[in-house]
Amino acid sequence: MAQYAFHFDSNKCSGCKTCQVSCKETYKLPANNLYRKVLNYQGGAWELNEAGSYVPSGVFGYFMSVACNHCDEPACFGNCPTGAIQKDEDTGIVWVDAESCIGCKACVTACPYDAPSFNEESGLVIKCDMCKDEVAAGGKPICVTACPMRALDFGTREDMEALYGAGDVEVEPLPVNSTGPNLIVNPHRNAQKTGSGTGALVNLEEEL
């Protein structure tokens, strides 16, 4: 199997959300559903100096573009009671069989990356399928081709690691690696390790 993977360089990401918007528009997703999200992680504080002015102290911020990571051991796959979650044997792409989905949301609660989401209109779960039809035709996922900063890339895991190295997925605000995500992250220069971060997500609730 040639497992496909996403690559993301946080140092190149400007937080423009073109990847997120192009995906949402292409697949005509409902207002409350996203396949890809751009997370805004910030920290630090403003302190009063001797001159009586507020100055930044340890202020930092960076973005993380995250979709389904088509994991080696996807939690959604292991927790689906009907077999609706499929992992392609040739590409490693994880997708939802709508005909088998009963909308129980077991996959939604199981995924540490919040990739599956419940579609209120259809009563079913939907998620990123790595634009598998586009990939099958020789193309790349919409989010990758749309990124103006070329912060995203896509290919086999072997090719991505050859180009960018092994990367590190255990950086805030991502969770501890428990599922073998096929995501290669070049962390931002200010990135903090998962579990030891001092910042927080500052996205508005309606953005997520």
Note down, in words, how this protein is organized.
One of its GO terms (molecular function) is metal ion binding. Keywords: 4Fe-4S, Electron transport, Iron, Iron-sulfur, Metal-binding, Repeat, Transport. This is Dimethyl sulfoxide reductase subunit B. The model has no long low-confidence stretch (mean pLDDT 96). The radius of gyration is 18 Å and the shape is globular. It has a three-stranded mixed β-sheet. The protein has a domain of 137 residues: Alpha-Beta Plaits (2-Layer Sandwich), CATH 3.30.70. Helix content is 18%, strand content 26%. It has six helices and ten strands. With 208 residues, it is α+β, with helices and mostly antiparallel strands.
DSSP helix fraction: 10-25%
Strand content of the residues, in percent?
25-35%
Residue stretches low in confidence (pLDDT < 50, at least 5 long) are none
The mean pLDDT is 96
The 3D shape can be described as globular
Which architecture name of the domain at 4-73 and 128-194 does CATH use?
2-Layer Sandwich
End-to-end distance, in Å?
33 Å
Structural class, by secondary structure, is alpha+beta
CATH domain fold name of the domain at 4-73 and 128-194: Alpha-Beta Plaits
CATH class of the domain at 4-73 and 128-194: Alpha Beta
Q: Which series of helices and strands comes N to C?
A: EHEEHEEHEEHHEHEE
Order of strands, main sheet, comes to 8-1-9
The largest sheet is:
3 strands, mixed
Number of helical segments with 4 or more residues: 6
Q: Over the alpha carbons, how many angstroms does the gyration radius reach?
A: 18 Å
Number of β-strand runs: 10
